[in-house]
Structures are given as structure tokens and as C-alpha cells.
């Protein structure tokens, strides 16, 4: 048993580190950010591993209790006592992380203060205000609920409320993800469609880069003004020099000062935070743009048969076949999950497809473990990928090429932690593991969450069974957005009423402009390489 746990922890740690290396460089990022992101992601990604083990082990224990048939022990069997300890560690660990440690670090990392103690004060101030507001609102609802509920189980009410909020997010992200995952494959099977999507992205990134560069220039003008009005003898002069040292000297010298800047420590701190944020954002967009241009160059060479033969065979034949097979499987998985959520409220008769799939293979411990693991990983992938790939205004966005900011990484860790328990509970409800079916089998996870089952409205056979039906709405919007984008529908409605946005580019115009921008990048790169090669050749001649 312990060997299995150690092996699973080792595998999970490797997976988390590989994923983290896509978004940040753990060796260059602050150790506390790396540690807490690793911890948050690790606990969240433990769900797809631990839940199938819990289900298969619980079914085996129930089979042994009945003593009327031969029971096949799963090779990943873990006793219920150990599983309860693990689930308690995961549940309370993720709860503490997402409500205390990570929010504090988020505020600390985004603070523009120039001293550690000042940054700690700013972080505490922001979080105290947030928790006072949330605590006041939750306190009112809790008092009203306790008056209505004679049971008075504070812990159960708290767990049920947290699970309800988490379930709303899970259904939203799952509804989007079960459409988005197959939709991306459909778009990427055709090389032409994939190139067009890259061209469109390049156009959008170019416009965004220009806009963000303008914002950064305005911020630098404020720094220049602060540099003018704050003399060397002023104690705040050190703060100004810290900001100036973070700006490119050539750009700083070429910038004219702003007209107004009110001298204060608070304004300098805010300016420092804005400069750091904006410089990173410009860098993120710039490198993402270059990465997309490199992708275009590679796929254009494949499309025009200029790439090596093996590369063309791989992308035009092997990758297409694998993508089509994966697409068929993903569509089947998505439809199974969608129908299981949609039919969740029906118990007489049970209509959930996942219930019948699990019931049909219950006697084979190995097959049961494999099937449950595949479905749980797919569901978790749909939910987690939606969170990782989403953009929340200017507050949250993860970038590849290790360009993600600490605040976004911590935000993702916090919300992955919030999704853990609701996701696991929702999966158990989908397969009807409710202590009634499967001979009354109850998992260790349900034992940990048992205090919420008797809570009115949020407990069993209520919110957790009926709210998932809302997946229909989210999936419908997601389907429209992937194949008939919502902005296109909105613009069509406006055009019908005679309202036209002449500044808005059509998809065809975006593709055309993106292609033109890519060609400009190629030309500049070719000129740069020619100059570099010529310079190298001249230096060699000089050395000779």
C-alpha cells in the first residue's frame, strides 16, 4: 500500500513540475510562489488519481463484507482508514490554502511597496477588508439558515455552502470544457483552419501589443515627472530610483515627462506596481506573438511542401489519424458526461449512462479502475483546462513559454483548490455512489463530507443533483462560441437593426492582416540573419 502511495506521489510531482515549467520557471520564480503553486496544483491534481482508487477500494471492501462471492482485490487497494486520512488532508489542506495562504501571497506579490514590511501590511489590509465583507454577508445568511434549520450543524453548513459555490464553478467550467476540448481538435485537424486561427491570433496580439505599449509609455511619463519633482534629498528619492532601474534606459531617456504627478508614498507604490505589471504584460504579449509567428512559419513550410519529408508525413498523415481517433473518443466521453449530468435528477428509473457503465464492469477490479480513471481524468481535464486557458480581464491569464506572472499562477492554484471537493462529489453523484446503489457502498470521501448531507437544500437529493442540469446552458453557449462566435451573432443582430461598427474587423480581414504581419516578421528575421551571417564572415576574415 505504501509503495503505491509513494509511486503515485512521485508520478504526480513529475506531472505538476512539467506543467509548471510551461508557465513559469520554478528556479527563477520566488521560492514561496513556486512552493504554494506546486502545493495547490498537486492537491488539485490528486483528485483524478485518488478518487478512482477510493471507488474501487470501497467496492472491494463491500464485496468482502457480503462474503457471498469471490472478490477481486484492486492492485491499487488502500484501506478506508488511510483513505479517510488522505481525503481529510486534501480537503482541509485545499481549504486553508485557497482561503488564507494563497490570497495573502497574491496581494503580497502584486503590491508595489518598496519594503517587505510595507508589502505585508498592504497584503493584510486588502485581505482583511475582503474577509470582513465576505464574513458579514456569510454571517447574515448563516444566522438565517440556522434559524430555519433546527439541526444547527455549523460545520455541515459551512462545507455545504463552500461545495455549492464550488459546484457552480465546476458545472460552468465543465460545460465549457466538454465542448472546447473536442472543438479544438476539430479546428486543428485541418492545417488550413489552424493557420487561419494563427493569423487571426497574430492580428489580435499585434493590436493588443500596441495598446499595452501605449499604456506603458503613459506610465513611464509619470515616472519621469516623479523623477523631476522629487529631489535627491527627499527620502522618497530611493523609491523613484528603484522604479527607474526597472525601466529600459533608452526608452526612459526618450520619454517626455507627464504634466501632473502628486508626490506621495502611496502614489509611488501604486505606480511601481503598475509599471511592473505593465512591463510584464507587454513582454508576455510580445513573446506570445513571436511564438505564433514561428508556428505560422513552420506550418506554412509544411503546407507548401518545403519542410522535411518526415515532418510532412507526421503532420499530414500520422497526426491527422491520431487526432481523428482522439476526436471520436473525446466526443463519446463528452456526450457521456453531458448526458450523465443532464439526467442526474432522475432516480426512478436511473438514466445516468456512467452509472450503467460502472455497474456493468463492477466485477472486474482492473477494468473498473481503468474505466473510472479515464473518465475522471477526462472530466478533470475539461474543468482544469478551462480554468488554465481562461482570461479574466487584466487580472488573470496564464502564458506559455514561462511568462506567467506570480499573481496569475497563485490565482489558478487557489481556484483549483476550490474545485477539488465539488468536482469529486459531482462525479460520485453522476455514477450514483450515494450510499443506496452499488449495494449501499460509500466511499471514504463521502465519509469525510457526510456532515453536509443532512443540510436542507444543499444536502443529498437537492442542489447537488438538480443544479448540474444547468450544464445544458453553458454547453450551448460554448458550442455557439466555438463554431458561430457570440460576437459575430451580436454584430449580425446589430446589422439587422442598421447599426454597424466600422472599426470592427471581420474574420477574413483579421486573417489577411495576420498573414501580412507574419510576412513582415519573416522579412525582418531574414534581414537580421543575413546581417548576422555577413558580420560573422567578416570577423572570420579579419581573424585570418
From TrEMBL:
Record keywords, A-Z: Membrane, Transmembrane, Transmembrane helix
Location of the protein in the cell: Membrane
Xref: InterPro entries: GPCR-associated_LMBR1 (IPR051584), LMBR1-like_membr_prot (IPR006876)
CC annotations in GO: membrane
Transmembrane residue ranges: 6-24, 31-51, 89-108, 128-148, 154-179, 321-344, 364-388, 409-431, 466-490
UniProt entry tagged with the keyword Transmembrane: yes
Protein topology in the membrane: Multi-pass membrane protein
Pfam families the record matches: LMBR1
Residue ranges that the Swiss-Prot or TrEMBL entry lists as coiled coil: none
Keyword Membrane in record: yes
Family: Belongs to the LIMR family.
Protein name as annotated: LMBR1 domain-containing protein
